[in-house]
Structures are given as structure tokens and as C-alpha cells.
Write a structure and sequence with these properties.
Elements (H helix, E strand, L loop, with lengths): L6 H10 L4 E2 L3 H14 L4 E5 L9 E2 L2 E2 L3 H6 L6 H18 L6 H20 L8 H7 L8 H10 L4 E8 H10 L7 E6 L1 E3 L5 E4 L9 H6 L2 H6 L5 E6 L16 E8 L3 H11 L2 E4 L5 H10 L1
Parallel strand pairs: 2-5, 2-9, 5-6, 9-10, 10-11
Antiparallel strand pairs: 1-11, 3-4, 7-8
The structure holds cytidine-5'-monophosphate (C5P) and magnesium ion.
Length: about 300
Amino acid sequence: ENPQLTPFEIFFKEIEKFSKLHMKDRDRVQEILQSMQKAGSKTLQVISDFDMTLTRFEYNGKRCPTCHNILERSDAISSDCKKKLQELLDKYYPIEIDSTLSVEEKLPLMVEWWTKAHELLVNQKIKKAGLAKAVKDSEAKLRDGYQYFFDHLNEHSIPLLIFSAGIGDILEEVIRQTEVFHPNVKVISNYMDFDESGVLKAFKGELIHIYNKKEGALLNTGHFQELRTRTNVLLLGDSLGDLNMADGVQDMENILKIGFLNDKVEERKQSYLDSYDIVLIKDETLDVPNAVIRFLT
Ligand code: C5P
Ligand code: MG
């Protein structure tokens, strides 16, 4: 007996083969995907975090930089300031990924981290003209499969919102230098404000940190209003705070949430399985999101 498999069954068997892929509720994931496929790619939008979601967490056993790290480690920053920024990272990153603390406990500490780091950066008189070099010299790396991810979404005119608590100017430079900053990409992030002579004087607007992406989304109603016919969402993140990135989406019908679990895997696995539909454990590629968008388009 050789039963004919439907295209959906073939696709689903394929993604289930990924050894790094975990799901709490396989039936629910199937339901969401089938419903999204039925609705068609004209109803799809993608919302993704940037650092450690579109970029790699590790490469050759070494940690890869976040947007902040790219700038902090560049020659735009004095060695004394580098030391202070490193101390902040050593103090606050363990808090960010601590599974024994609640969001309420972490939130004020995260605000403190971002605020202190931005203050230090503003005092460095960073020049706008130096950002491209900082990115070029850095070890920033998009996840394997990024080319297909960005190009395919653009070819199918599927909007990609990159929603990042990192630094917008740096993030844009990373995707510009890798030639994937296509017209379907919109970025919500922390942007630098430069004076007339091109020197950093502040950060613009409301601070976005990892636990206020809901507020960030609600400040951008115009964007979500434009996309109101795109009622199906593929969300990619690496932090539990990223789950709120879609809170501004209007008339949402389905959402498939894919989460990268990069660090403190054992401690955080259950909470990730409880909140993301698909969890990718220590996967440095975009293979699963790519398989999903290939199937949906
Ligand atoms: O793009 P995304 O929202 O992931 O950016 C936030 C990340 O930036 C956090 O996960 C945090 O670890 C990192 N960060 C940093 N240095 C700071 C503040 C945040 O590397 N000063
Ligand atoms: Mg992230």
C-alpha cells in the first residue's frame, strides 16, 4: 500500500525531519499552516526580530555581535567606554536570559541597561559617516539561508517588518551591505539622531527594549493599517518579548510563531514551547522559516 501524500503532508513531513525543531502541539501547527495556505500569500505578512533571530548567535564556536555590540566594538568608541559597555553587558545580559525572574522583575533592569548604554554611546560623539565602516569591520552575520528569505519575500511582495530593540541605523547598514534591503522591508527600531555636522546627539523617539515591543507596535498603527488585508502573520523571534511584535496587527486571523532558542536551553525550553508554536533549538539557519514561506507562496 502506497498512499498518495498531499502537498501539505509532504511539506510537513519535511519540516518535521529537522532535528532542531520542537513543537508542543503538532496538530495546532498543522491547522495554522493549512489555514494560512488556504488564505493565500496575498494575506501574508512577516514580522521578525533582528538580533539573534535574523542574525546568527554563534559562528565557529564564537558569539556573534548584536547591533549594539557592532558599534561598541568598533573604532568609533574609546577603550575606556568599551570597558564600561562590556561591564553593562556582563551585568545585564544574564538578567535578560534568566528564567527565574519574571518580566516585571526584569523590565526596569532592561530599561536601565538600554538607557545607560545609550548615554555612553551619545557621549562618544559618534559620526554618522563612520557607521558603514563599523559594520564592515564587524563580525555580524545573518543566518544561513538569509538570501532566500529576503529575496523570496520581496519577489512575492510579502511585507517584512523587522522589529528590533537594537539600533536601526546599524541594522539597516547590515542588510544594505548584504544587499537584502529590498523595498518590501520596513524597520521599527531605535534610530540615532545626528546634529548638522553628523555627530550623534541622542536617540530618536521612544526607547524600544526587549519588553516593550507591544508599545512600539501600538505607536506604529499607520503601518499596520496599511497592511490590514494581510491578516496572516509569520512571526520570528528569539526572546519571549518578541511575541508582542504582532500586537498592532489588525483583524489578525492566524499567526505562526517561530522562536529561536539560542542560549540557556534547558532552563528555558518549556517556556519557549509554551509560547512559540515552533521552537528551533541551537539552529543557526533560516531553513525552517524558509520552508514555511516556500510552502505558503
Ligand atoms: O533586535 P533585538 O530586539 O533582538 O535586539 C535586542 C538585543 O540587543 C537584546 O537581545 C540584547 O541582548 C541586545 N543588547 C545589547 N546591548 C545593549 C542592549 C541590548 O547587545 N546595550
Ligand atoms: Mg533578538
